[in-house]
Structures are given as C-alpha cells and as structure tokens.
From TrEMBL:
High-level lineage: Bacteria, Pseudomonadati, Pseudomonadota, Alphaproteobacteria, Hyphomicrobiales
Protein name: Signaling protein
Domain EAL: residue ranges: 23-273
Residues of the full protein shown: 48 to 322 of 326
Organism for this UniProt entry: Methylobacterium isbiliense
Amino acid sequence: AKEDGRGGYRMFEDGMNARMQARRTLELDLRRAIARQEFELHYQPQVDARSGRYDGAEALIRWHHPAHGLVSPAQFIPLAEETGLINAIGEWVLRTACAEARSWPDHLTVAVNLSPVQFRDVRLVAMIRSILAEAGLPGSRLEIEITEGTLMQDEERTFAVLGELRADGIRISMDDFGTGYSSLSTLHRFPFDKIKIDQSFVRRVPHDRDSVAIVRAIATLGASLGIKTTAEGVETDRQARFIAEEGCDQIQGYLVSRPVPAARIAVLFRDPRPL
Ligand code: C2E
Ligand code: CA
Ligand code: CA
Ligand code: CA
C-alpha cells in the first residue's frame, strides 16, 4: 500500500529522495577524492603460522572524507563499483601499494584487493605490468586477492587473465573462502596460490563445532591441493594456536596488528618475530 492514511507515503518518498540525494553527493565526493588525495592505504601484516615471522601485508583502502571523517571501504567500494569509479580507485591502490612495498625487505609481499569490475577492463594485465615496472617491484612480491564475485562473471576470460598474471610471478588468492558460492570445483579449475578462510569461521573457533569443522576442512583441502591457507580475523592467542595446529600456513588479524599506515608497517617489519 502506498497510502497509510497518515502521510506515510509522502514520508517514504521524502526518505527515498533524501537517500538518493545523499548517494549522489557521496558519488560526487568520491569522484574528486583521488585528485584531492583523500585516500590512504593501511597495511595489515600476514604472519607465517609456523615460524611466527612476517610474510607480508594486505593493503586496505581508507577514505578521509573532509566532512564525514573516515569512511569505511564497506560503505564506498560498492558505490565505486556501481559507478565504475573503482577502476580509477583500484589503479591508484595498485600503484600506491607497489610503490610503498618497494621499500619493504625483499622477501615480503603486498596483497591487493581487486574488484570484479576491474576484471572487465581489457587493459588490466597491461596496467598491472606497467605499475610493477614503474615501481621496480618484481611480480613475485605482488599478490592479488579476488572473491567469488570475480569468478562468477565470464569465468573463461577471468581464468585467462589470472593465468597471465600468474605467469608474471604474481600470486593469486581466493578471498573470503567459505562464504558465497565458493565451490570446490573452482579450486580444481584454477591453480590458486592461496585460500583465505573467511573471518566469520575463524572468529568462532575453537568453541563452535561447525566452525571448527569448516576451518579444519579448508586447511586439509589446501594442504592436499598444495594451496597455502590464511586465516583472517585472528584476534586471540587461542584462535592462533588452533589455526596453527590445524595446519593453516598464515595468520592475519588484530592479534598481530590492526591495519596501520605505511610509515607504521615499515616499523613493524623490523620485528623479526612478531608472533
Ligand atoms: P577484506 O578484503 O576481507 O579485508 C579484511 C577486513 O577485515 C578489513 O576490513 C580488515 O580491517 C578487517 N579485519 C582484519 N583483521 C580483523 C580482526 O582480527 N577482527 C576484525 N573484526 N576485523 C578484522 P576493512 O579494511 O574495513 O575492509 C573491508 C573490505 O573492503 C575488505 O574486506 C575488502 O573487501 C574491501 N576493500 C578494502 N580495501 C580495498 C581495496 O583497495 N580495493 C577493493 N576492491 N576492496 C577493498
Ligand atoms: Ca582481502
Ligand atoms: Ca577477506
Ligand atoms: Ca608457511
């Protein structure tokens, strides 16, 4: 019913307009954010579960909005994807992450999240190659994190693109594994280098039986397929111990560190054994 007899319809309409207006404003702000240098990358360390040493870090974008303060990527990435702005933003992320990782110790990798939308751009591989060359970073030090969403569109082309990147030494990670439609056949059809076990499961170990079973199954699967596994969202010592006992290769989460600015990650990397 559009009319509830008490002006409900009008209120609903005003609410819609207000939301659409706010969205349009956000979109305009987002368009200007790169030029105005409002984006920054934070880095969250990834630690080898067995040795307790750093393997590298994941780049996570931050937007310092002049009026709204810090806006979370969960809020603006979807809008950036709908408007296509993610292509420019994603290119900025790659360029900045590769440039900043250049000064890290040689054995450390930088992981960058790629949106499904970026895979629709036929220039993606050329763009990544030129960014690596420009930064002087070998492909082996870059990791690309993709989600199920990326594989759900034109799988053949996506696999071809991933294959080209992989031939350059770039590692490919399956992010948020266990959520959405991640299927076992996906792992069988493409040689992923890493599976990231979604934090919704990691958060509930070792107390929740189902989560224990899921984490254990993914760790076993990774080990038997020769794919590295990373547990995301590790917050406690108990979770870290469980993860290591299950044979996961890598730990990422607040236990080691929250995502931190570039200057701070360089300092963290001086600690030879954070865990
Ligand atoms: P994600 O790729 O799954 O990144 C992990 C998220 O979990 C990050 O949130 C991180 O700060 C958070 N996290 C890490 N450890 C813990 C923990 O121990 N406990 C809890 N509660 N949370 C933890 P963030 O930075 O807000 O990013 C959210 C999502 O936004 C990312 O999820 C990713 O999908 C997207 N995103 C972030 N940066 C980029 C980017 O540069 N490009 C694209 N396309 N997406 C990005
Ligand atoms: Ca990620
Ligand atoms: Ca994730
Ligand atoms: Ca290892």
